[in-house]
Amino acid sequence: MNELHLPLLRAGKPYRTLDSASLTDVRTGEPLGTVSQAIPGMITRDLQQAEENRRSLDAFTVAELIDITHKAAKLFGEAELPLYPGADQGFTPEQYLQHLSATTGMPMALGEMNLEKITGVMAGIEGVLDGLTRGLDLSVLDGGWGEDGGRRVSYQRLTSTLGAVLPNNSPGVHNLWLPAIPLKVKLVLRTGSSEPWTPYRMTMAMIEAGAPAEAFSLYPSGHGAVPALLVGTGRSMFFGDQSTVEAWKGTGKVQLHGPGWSKVIFDETSADGWSDHLDMLTSSVAMNGGRSCINCSGVWTPKNGREIADAMARKLAEIDALPLDHPDARLAAFPDPEVARLISDMIDDYLTTPGAEDLTAKYRSGGRVAEAGGCTFLRPTVIHVTDPEHPVADAELMFPFVGVVDCPQDEMFEAIGPTLIGTVISDDQGFLNRALDCKDIDRLNLGPIPTYKISWDQPHEGNLFDHLYHQRAFQIAS
Amino acid sequence: MSATAHALNPQDQNLQQAAAESRARLDAHVREIVQWHFNPETGCPFWLEKAKTFDFDPLKDVQTYDDLKLFGHFQDEWLRGGPVRRWVPKGLVGEPIYVFETGGTTGVPKSRINMHDFEIDYSNFGDGLSDDTFPPGSDWLMLGPTGPRRLRLAIEHLAHHRGGISFHVDLDPRWVTRLVKNKRWDELEAYKEHVSGQALKILRAHEIRCIFTTPKLLEHLADKIDLVKYGITGIFCGGTEMNADFHRFAREELVPGADFVPVYGNTLMGLARAKPFDPATGDYTITYYPPHPRAVFEIVNPDDLDEIVPYHETGRVLLTTLTKEFFMPRFAERDEGERAEPVPGSPWDGVSNLRLFSRFAKKVAVGVY
């Protein structure tokens, strides 16, 4: 067997760079393979052929591309797929999950859950497109114009390419860029440093199912290539931490996927019934290892905050660090143990500001930092906060971490700040109206819906179709 | 440990002999330069004053390159602010003085005085360029940092030295640095367009054969026109961001058919030439050799700057400049790379895969996404 290496895909063509980055097993530090590293100029140069490459998708109707995506779903979930076009090595789903787990620290069990999520979205791509386009007859995109709801409509594609700067945290996020292909827009992806596996596998599933290889460019690279990708692609999405994505705010071209600060919000009355929602609260915090922007990082309540925090702490403390291949593993390991320790130190530092108490400490079986199976983890942490201005109130960290924040009902929607998913539990129509009016909540769940429960036909963090297409005024002489 | 004391290929007696001779020349050069800089008649006020604090006598105790350790490490902070004349050797008073700056995006720039060093360095470098690809008498375009930088005059001198004329486009690297630091990418693109647009006008209006530019501007220019079709035969490119992949990318995609010569230079030393590319080997590794004995590289353990790392291992670049205009002993550069063995034509240590020296600070990602 040859050494495992992932080359760049330059419009579907593998290109092995001289420099490469190592992919290592977080448990042992053993090298698992290497990945080519794009230089910025290469991305810029390749983008000169972007429209030409994109046109390879015009050979298909949207319906045919949907059909290809359905086939790809099956391949992604079940087949041994080559690592890249022409590769003599391939991965079965099991090998994919093993490598995913080894380089990112995600337990196999969570990897499987994500695999199913991706397969499900691919298999149901028409529903996603329906949600994104609000039920548009997609054949309109094949001919440039058509009839929809009895009206003549035309949609103008705003870009040849969708660029994406991808994260390492959770494979499920890759569902967000996938619809670009049936929408006939070429993909230009900068893969995460420790998680190239999912974008490569999704790409190979699509190519093997019949999608044109030219429509996929994958550029693993250092941070230096990010501006080249974001400046050079007509539209893009950027996953990153707050300080990273901040510079691209307001450009219009870049859809930002930063921290979610997703929350569950109670009113005075519903806060009395908090115990009915304990499972929803804790699963919202802990699902997928607490690594997603759709995990709950704050529970905001006008009363019973300490009781809620205490009960959540007791329940979440049951989740302990387990080896990555343990079927019950629910915590993801930190690839760099030092980062786990720094985060724990940072939480301790937060706690020095009066008004915050770590309620998990008394329930868990050891310190916040835990070791298991050769990996370093952070155990779930619940902090009760008595002041909405406390730094914990808008903290979001890469593990099951939540602040339960006391906040007067009247001040709630002014105080919560940016909220990707807001689950609001209330029977008070006035409170619900204020939630509907709140400009800080992106995706609104009314009722006890876990924050992680996503309907893929309901776009969040921006609508990809609106990002890629514009409805133009259109007339034809009769 | 000496700069060239590690085992050479024992079969290459000529190279061993050349290395020994270059070492002897270096030691003699060190004696000459130290005598010059610490002689009250010829030395500069800075070093003569500094010598009063030494517990050794440079004039007696420094006889070889290794003896430069007595000086400790040059601090580039000494070059910030004035009076700049404290760096002018008394033996050169009356010569026309240039001042070249480095840094300066924020704070006071570092200044180095210069009389003829830049001309000597660029003449020496120019003598090594191929007459086929940098034809004598042909004209140049200098598309790189201007203003208080050495390059503006140095490239013009190089063009003159080879019988040509150099055209210039203004470029302010401090503004570029500020745009990058502040992540103002759209403005950066606009500035690149502004600069490359001027370059294109010159290339269209004149018969230019040779270009000096930076890797980023070369990419930008080559994305707009086919430089080889425009008659460009030689490109000389500087910047630490160049690596083997860029070298290959330049030769295979940006300017296939043109000669591509990477260089490493800065205000504090001369110009280090790269080991020539051999298409037969397909080895795109960029290895730089300093202009001995005027400048010397040592590749050292970053935790012990006196320890030279073995060949092919990574270390920090320690740079020594030894000219009558400027004495800079054992300055720890901001760069790192792999220590490279002597080669014919440059029988002294070089550095491969030069890049910015980085000790990674741990960063906590706040927020998931």
What can you tell me about this protein's structure?
The complex is a heterodimer of chains A (478) and B (369). By secondary structure, chain A is of the alpha/beta class. Chain A folds into two domains: 5-258 and 460-472, Aldehyde Dehydrogenase, Chain A, domain 1 (3-Layer(aba) Sandwich); 262-446, Aldehyde Dehydrogenase, Chain A, domain 2 (3-Layer(aba) Sandwich), CATH 3.40.309.10. Chain A is built from 16 helices and 24 strands. In chain A, helix 1 (40-46) packs parallel to helix 9, helix 3 crosses helix 8 (197-208) and helix 4 (93-104) crosses helix 5 (108-123). Chain A is globular and about 65 Å long. By secondary structure, chain B is an alpha/beta fold. Chain B contains nine helices and 14 strands. In chain B, helix 8 (215-224) links the parallel strand 5 (208-213) and strand 6. At the A-B interface, helix 1, helix 9, helix 10 and helix 13 of A face helix 7, helix 8 and helix 9 of B.
Task: Summarize the topology.
The complex is a heterodimer of chains A (478) and B (369).
Chain A: E1 5-6, E2 8-10, E3 13-15, E4 20-24, E5 31-36, H1 40-46, H2 50-54, H3 62-78, E6 81-82, E7 90-91, H4 93-104, H5 108-123, H6 125-133, H7 139-143, E8 145-148, E9 151-157, E10 161-165, E11 186-190, H8 197-208, E12 216-218, H9 226-232, E13 235-239, H10 242-246, E14 254-257, E15 262-266, H11 278-286, E16 296-301, H12 305-316, H13 337-351, E17 356-358, E18 369-372, E19 375-378, E20 381-385, E21 401-406, H14 412-415, E22 419-425, H15 429-437, E23 441-446, H16 464-468, E24 469-472
Parallel strand pairs in A: 1-5, 10-11, 10-13, 11-12, 13-14, 15-16, 15-22, 16-21, 20-21, 22-23
Antiparallel strand pairs in A: 2-3, 4-5, 6-7, 8-9, 9-24, 17-20, 18-19
Chain B: H1 13-38, H2 45-51, H3 58-61, E1 98-102, E2 110-114, H4 117-127, E3 139-143, H5 150-161, E4 166-168, H6 173-181, H7 185-205, E5 208-213, H8 215-224, E6 234-238, H9 244-254, E7 259-265, E8 271-274, E9 287-289, E10 295-301, E11 304-308, E12 314-322, E13 327-340, E14 350-356
Parallel strand pairs in B: 3-4, 3-5, 5-6, 6-7
Antiparallel strand pairs in B: 1-2, 7-8, 8-9, 9-14, 10-11, 10-12, 12-13, 13-14
Helix pairs in contact in B: 4-5
